[in-house]
Every structure is written in C-alpha cells, then in structure tokens.
Amino acid sequence: MSVKKTTKSAALPVTMRALQAQAFSLDGLQLVQRPVPQPRRGEILLRIRAASLNYRDLAVLTQNYYPTLATPFVPGSDACGEVVELGEGVDRWKIGDRVTPTYTQGWHDGLPTPEMRAKRTLGAPLEGVLQDYLVVPSEDVVAAPAGLTDAEASTLPIAGLTAWNALSEGGLKVGDTVLVQGTGGVALFALQFAKAAGATVIITSSSDEKLARAKALGADIGINYRTSADWPQAVKHVTGGRGVDIVVETGGSTLPQSLATVAFGGFVAVVGFVAGYEAKIGIRQLLAPMARVQGIAVGSRARFERMNHAIQIHGIKPILDRVFPLEHGAAAFNYLEGGAGHFGKVVVAL
Ligand SMILES: NC(=O)c1ccc[n+]([C@@H]2O[C@H](COP(=O)([O-])OP(=O)(O)OC[C@H]3O[C@@H](n4cnc5c(N)ncnc54)[C@H](OP(=O)(O)O)[C@@H]3O)[C@@H](O)[C@H]2O)c1
Predict the structure, then answer these.
(1) What CATH number did the domain enclosing 216 receive?
(2) What are phi and psi of 207, to 5 degrees?
(3) DSSP class of residue 184?
(4) Residue 339 — very low, low, confident or very high, per pLDDT cuts 50/70/90?
(5) Pocket flag, ligand 1, residue 318 (CB < 6 Å)
(6) Other CB atoms closer than 10 Å to residue 305's CB: what's the count?
(7) I need a surface site. Which of 77, 105, 109, 242 has the fewest CB within 10 A?
C-alpha cells in the first residue's frame, strides 16, 4: 500500500528565485535559481510573499554579525508566507494558511537554549527568507494577524517581537513613561505598543521631520539627539526630574546616556548597537537608581502569539517605508544602509 507522505497545493514549480549573497558585500547579492526544497516529516513548505529587512541582515551581509557564516548564502530573517505543502505528520496547519516563521527556531516559551540562540536563527546561520519557497518546522511559525497585509505581517518576527519583548521584560504598566531611541523598525513598534498600553512615550531622533511623524503616531515628546547636546538631561527635564520607567536602548554605546534617564527602579532593555558595541558606564549609574539592565534577544513563540493578539485587538498597523520587488532586493539593502532615510520597515515583495 502506498502511503501519501505530504499534502500540497497544486503544481508547485521545481525551481525558484533566491536572492543569494555570493560575497560579503551588498554588491555580492545576485538573483539565482535554486531547487524548491521539500518538507520532511514535521515540516512545512512556505511560499514566501514578503520579507522585511532588518539592521541585522545588513550586518550579516557585511560579515559584521555571524563571522563563521560561509558564502554563498540567502539572507533575510523576517517573512510572511503561505503554507503550500505539509510534511508527513503535520496537523498544526493547513494548505493556504498565512504564517510568519519565528526568528529563533525552536524557542517556544521561557528562555531559549544557548544552542537555539547561536545556531537556530533564520537568515544566519539558518537559510534566509529572501527566496520564493522556504521549509521550516511546523512548530516554528505563528499565524499572521488577519488584519495585516503580507508586507505588514512580515515585519513582526524580529522588529515587532523585539519591541514587544523589551516592554514585556520591563513590566510595562499603564501610566509608565517609556523612552524609545531613534525611529527605526524596533523603535516604532515600541512606540505603538507602549501607547496602546497607556504609557507616555518620549522618542529621540536625528531628524525633526521624523520626530513630527513619530508624534503623529502618538509619541508624546520628541527630542532631537543631534541638536540637543545633552538629550538625557532633556529627558529628565520633560519628566519633571523623575526620569523614565523603561528605555528601549537601540544605540548600544549610548547605554551610559540611557542610564542617566532612568527613574528610580527603572529598566533599560538593551536591544541594539546602531551607535556602537562599546560603552563605559559608572557603577554608580546602576546603584543610585537601582536600575535594571537586560539584554533582549527578539522573543519566544508564546510572546509572538500574545503580541499578535494585541495587534489584532488594538488594530495596530506596522509602519512601512518602502516595498521593493525581489529583483531589486539589492537596492532595498542599499536603501536601508543609507540609514537616515527610512521611517518604518523596508520590505521586499516576492
Ligand atoms: N536584540 C535583538 O533582539 C534585536 C532585534 C532587532 C534589532 N536589534 C538591533 O536594534 C537596533 C535597531 O534595529 P532596527 O531594525 O530598528 O534598525 P533600523 O530600522 O535600521 O533603525 C535604526 C535607527 O536608529 C537610529 N539611530 C542611528 N544612530 C543612532 C544613535 N547614535 N543614537 C540613537 N539612535 C540612532 C536612527 O533613527 P533616526 O533616523 O530617527 O535618528 C535609525 O533610523 C540594531 O542595532 C539592530 O541590530 C536587536
């Protein structure tokens, strides 16, 4: 008796497009043809519909993130896709479901293992999402929120979840004051989630125009970190000297300044390193305010599902800057690298 091992939607192609890095540089990106992979037991095949770019993907491409990665590789960590084939034994999903893979595969709840953090992340060292089809374990995707487009949903696995996790770890409560650094992908999600939770949000940016746009999204106070020489002092001033309850620290080397803004018992979620990896802090900066500082690494599947529920309830829409077709994937990376330009997520449609 023959056993049907997989269930698939009609007529899948044999080959597909993939944006492959042939070398560690933006110029090394090339559109190539590869075989469409096949799901094994417990896995699903996704037709990727949209992939959103992260600062991390740029760092991977320029070999500043995952030094042991070898070329060629397919970059990209965040995506939304449609389930088109089920491996044997998969009953969690059906053909046609719209899902987003989790960035740290295998991390379902609580803390991940060091092995998951080091070896199970999409877009280095695992296969990236900038290709038409991708196989993932059926346990390592979540349903895309119904109200979001594919492009919007593709922004959630890293940028959305990191912001959600940072605020969750900080114990965000109604009435808290949150400081969000910059107007990048993580920062804008943090702004939206904090406002939905009833917090006051202070946001910093190098651009007054971006600050105005952040205010239109609900930010209460904007501070230009370029023109305001002592921006931590400005934060203290606008909080009546009290400081903020939670800082979403995306700068990295700006940690000493962030610590200068925290209220007594405040929390700094160390998320990023756009200003650099090194910082020198005075121990008194931790002791005096009894500050808590925690490194954030995206988030678990359980938190992802909770975040999606909140997105649904509050009608939160991810902020998109530009959508590029896959053929112009390299231009999308170049645009992201341009830095000061974008406000919201840069997405590649497939
Ligand atoms: N730990 C994690 O799990 C995790 C997850 C996601 C991202 N990250 C990291 O978090 C950081 C932000 O990621 P992203 O994807 O949101 O980046 P992004 O979209 O590229 O945004 C970067 C923004 O940072 C701001 N910025 C640049 N230099 C700055 C400085 N010196 N001080 C303060 N802000 C500065 C800029 O805002 P303005 O243009 O408004 O000035 C810029 O738009 C990156 O380092 C990324 O690798 C970490």
Answers:
(1) 3.40.50.720
(2) -130, 125
(3) S
(4) low
(5) no
(6) 14
(7) 109
Would residue 210 count as lying in a domain?
yes
pTM of the model: 0.96
Q: How buried is 322 (Cβ within 10 angstroms: 0-12 exposed, 13-18 middle, 19+ buried)?
A: middle
Let me know if residue 91 belongs to a domain: no
Q: How many CB atoms lie within 10 A of CB 198?
A: 11
Of 202, 211, 206, the residue nearest 180 (C-alpha): 202
Q: Cβ(55) to ligand 1 under 6 A? A: yes
- State which of 57, 165, 186, 273 you would mutate to test the pocket of ligand 1, scoring each by most atoms of that ligand within 8 A of its C-beta: 186
- Chain-centroid distance of CA 6 in Å reads 32
Tell me whether strands 244-249 and 262-270 are parallel, antiparallel or unpaired: parallel
Inter-axis angle of helices 161-169 and 185-196, nearest 10: 50
The Cα–Cα gap between 79 and 103 comes to 9
**CB–CB of 54/78 below 8 Å?**
yes
Number of structural domains found in the chain: 1
Rounded to the nearest angstrom, the distance between the alpha carbon of 15 and the centre of ligand 1 is: 36
Q: Is 60 in the pocket of ligand 1 (CB under 6 A)?
A: no
Check if 158 has its Cβ closer than 6 Å to any atom of ligand 1: yes
Cβ neighbours of 173 (radius 10 Å): 11
* Structural domain that includes position 266: 170-295
pLDDT beyond 60 at 340 = no
342 is a domain residue: no
Read off the pLDDT band of 5 (50, 70, 90): low
Please indicate, yes or no, if residue 325 is contained in any of the structural domains: no
1 has pLDDT over 80: no
Q: Is the CB of 164 under 6 A from ligand 1?
A: no
In the block, which residue shows the tokens 């939160």? 316
Pull the structure tokens for residue 105. Answer: 């595969």
